[in-house]
């Protein structure tokens, strides 16, 4: 029998190193050794991505490294997620994310999507160049808690205002978070969005707080 900590550490290190094969190997070991897959996601995958984020902040890693780590984490989560107890994640929330119509820069939203998944949040990643109405329709269909909009161009970011207007009219309880290179906190206020994320880590904390507040509100009704 392999030590549980060795397996979780191996999974975390595989994520840090962007090693997809090892990430899959350790994810499979989690299942073989009857380790809680939810714990493996949080204490293996997520812990590894936290290390990656710290290294990125310190200039020790760059965007290509982050994407490799993200891919490794996704491979592990693909193995583990089907075995997670639904009771552990039913309150974790639902997020719909994507890059706004007219924009094809998806590196940032891919990272946000991966980190949200690693936190146990159900994510519907619509990809890039997403029509405004798709955000609304999918959010309706999956009963989303939050919609995350990304834009890396000043021309495309103006479409965020239209999505916010549509959301307020059709799904007023769903919160809207925006982010991306040209986007700012002031712009967030101007278009009436609920939150501005400065980076991927900021986005995760915002989404978690939105979901926490939503659950608290529903519990008090």
From TrEMBL:
Q: Which GO cellular component term is one of those annotated?
A: cytosol
Q: Where is the B12-binding N-terminal domain?
A: 1-92
An annotated Gene Ontology molecular function: methionine synthase activity
Record carries keyword Repeat = yes
Task: Tell me the superkingdom of the source.
Answer: Archaea
> Could you provide one GO biological process annotation from this protein's UniProt record?
tetrahydrofolate metabolic process
Question: InterPro entries attached here?
Answer: Cbl-bd_cap, Cobalamin-bd, Cobalamin-bd_sf, Met_Synthase/Corrinoid, Meth_synthase_dom
| SUPFAM superfamilies per record | Cobalamin (vitamin B12)-binding domain (SSF52242), Methionine synthase domain (SSF47644)
Supply the alphabetized keyword list.
Cobalt, Metal-binding, Methanogenesis, Repeat
> What Pfam families is this protein classified in?
B12-binding, B12-binding_2
Q: What residue stretches are annotated with the B12-binding domain?
A: 92-221
Similarity-based family: Belongs to the methylamine corrinoid protein family.
The record's annotation in PANTHER family points to: METHIONINE SYNTHASE (PTHR45833)
What this protein is called in its record is Cobalamin B12-binding domain protein
Q: Which organism is it from?
A: Methanohalobium evestigatum (strain ATCC BAA-1072 / DSM 3721 / NBRC 107634 / OCM 161 / Z-7303)
